[in-house]
Amino acid sequence: MSLPFKGRGRVGMGLFPDERQRIEQILNSVNTTGARLPDHMQQAIRAILSHKVRAFLSILGILIGVAAVIAMLALGEGARASLEQRLASLGSNLLSVRPGSPRLRGVALETGSVTRFTVRDAEAIAKLSPVKMVSPTVSGRGQVVYGNNNWSTRLEGVGINYAEMRASVPILGRFFTEEELRSRGKVAVLGLTVARELFGDNNPVGAEIKINRINFQVIGVLPEKGATGWRDQDDVIVIPVSTAMYRVLGKEYVDGIDVEVRGPELIEQAQEEIEGLIVRRHRLTGDIKESVDIRNLTEIQEALSSTTETMSWLLGSIAVISLLVGGIGIMNIMLVSVTERTREIGLRKAIGARAKDIMTQFIIEAVVMSVSGGLIGIAIGIGIAAALSFAAGWTTKVSLSAVALATLFSIGVGMVFGIWPARKASQLNPIEALRYE
Fold it and tell me: CA of 11: how far to CAs of 2, 4, 17, 28, in Å?
């Protein structure tokens, strides 16, 4: 189709040379029945490419927002996955029974100054109906020597159920047996940190080490537990509780008793029965809280999980704000575009384009820019998450749900923030628009 006007006609006045070709394209893509979707797509992409800097600034806002969303959610998911792994290492449905801490004139005294637990107390607790298994524990410090290497570490004396209760089944070798517990066997299971410091990359199982100058045989290596705050959970040696009490640490009483309940619904009942048992066995009077401290580790796990989830939502909310700012940037650029293209819009309406066609094209432009920024932002966000994991050692986890959320959100931002400029363009009066300079 050729132009129906030439030279110095009213409509042709003031046209730049490059506008002639643009108007030809408009005439070819618009008829009296309105344009089709492919035509709208072509016009939108052509308009974006004709103003590359303006389009880049619009895309940049969405790009930064989506990258922030991906990176923040990856950090939050990584933190939650790491916490779940650490909590799994504690076991499930656990109660920690420790001696209470009495108070004298408002001052807390040393724990165990009223009640001291023995291995027989642990055996009695194991017979309660809600209880699945128990493990008495004692702890202390030990100097470990192997050849020319030595290391100061934490010693844990535990029962044979410890491995199953605390997700500590050895990854190499085995755990100690009931017979070794009864005979106060000098056998040890090493944490990964101790094994690395003493043996490097060599297999320690079967080697002879000295713990506080006493010979022990290494029979296993514990699975990795990671660090909690300043404490390295892998910097530990686990030995039979009887050996720890009578051969190494010289203790007559256990420091505490770990109890695994048969199910979460029985935890409250187990607490009550354990308190009653201890009161009867030790003939306690007065405030039971000063004599025994029973902690529900499940509640602690739930509190930590809730805190991590809250932090994930907080990080995601901050990233969404940056995405909204990018959407506002797209809206501003599109409003400028409407002003700059007023004569073009008037010409399109004058030759048959409907308000719906004008609105559709501008919305498509906004969506194309936001989706382009979203896709680039996803790639950059994944790269940022990987860089944080590599450089800072943080645990990150990019989930498909986060990528889908960022994609849908970028499309939504383009549509929502493109509606006002598109509506403004579609409502222009064609006669006034053609007169616009």
Answer: 15, 10, 14, 18
